[in-house]
């Protein structure tokens, strides 16, 4: 499900057992990350799938990348793997106006 910035952030803040998932590369993450996010690089292919499969499928995942394309793809993969609560940040971190950690 695609959410705008406000819906995505409010959803994260008000959902119990919510996780922020950053699917960008290490180089991109070095430029800043949304607080509390875990990073699993979608470009790692099968490695991405292995790492995602270790996550708790009962939790809600708020997923982002740089512009929203890779995170939408990641949400699709996660749904195929049995995750039911995955939410894509439309526009990604490039349009993010919320908090960022370096």
TrEMBL record:
What does the record list as coiled-coil region(s)?
A: none
SUPFAM superfamilies, alphabetically? Rhodanese/Cell cycle control phosphatase
What Pfam families does the database record attribute to this sequence? Rhodanese
Can you tell which superkingdom this protein's organism belongs to?
Answer: Bacteria
InterPro entries per UniProt: GlpE_sulfurtransferase, Rhodanese-like_dom, Rhodanese-like_dom_sf
Please name the CDD domains in this protein's record: RHOD
- Signal peptide positions are none
Domain named Rhodanese: residues? 14-102
What SMART domains does the entry give? RHOD
**Name of the protein in question:** Rhodanese-like domain-containing protein
Organism for this UniProt entry: Flavobacterium difficile
